[in-house]
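Need residues for this backbone.
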């Protein structure tokens, strides 16, 4: 299933699957608190999709099936804004 970051059902599913915690620092995060608190991060960056070889290497590095779809819900994790913005 393709992940749509604007879809409230997809966002809530990711939040609940990962026990309402940031997957980097393990702190509890709110889905909404007046404004959006949880951010969604991709385990494998969508940028690797630009290069078939980089995508193949990333999939192999994570021991994923060759047909792994980086646009799927399986590639999305919840992150707090602090942790997600550290990567930028």
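Answer:
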């Amino acid at each position: 299933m393709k992940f749509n970051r604007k879809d409230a059902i997809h966002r809530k599913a990711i939040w609940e699957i990962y026990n309402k915690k940031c997957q980097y620092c393990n702190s509890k995060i709110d889905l909404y608190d007046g404004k959006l608190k949880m951010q969604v991060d991709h385990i494998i960056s969508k940028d690797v999709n630009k290069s078939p070889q980089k995508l193949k290497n990333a999939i192999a590095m994570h021991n994923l099936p060759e047909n792994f779809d980086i646009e799927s819900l399986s590639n999305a994790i919840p992150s707090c804004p602090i942790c997600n913005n550290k990567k930028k």
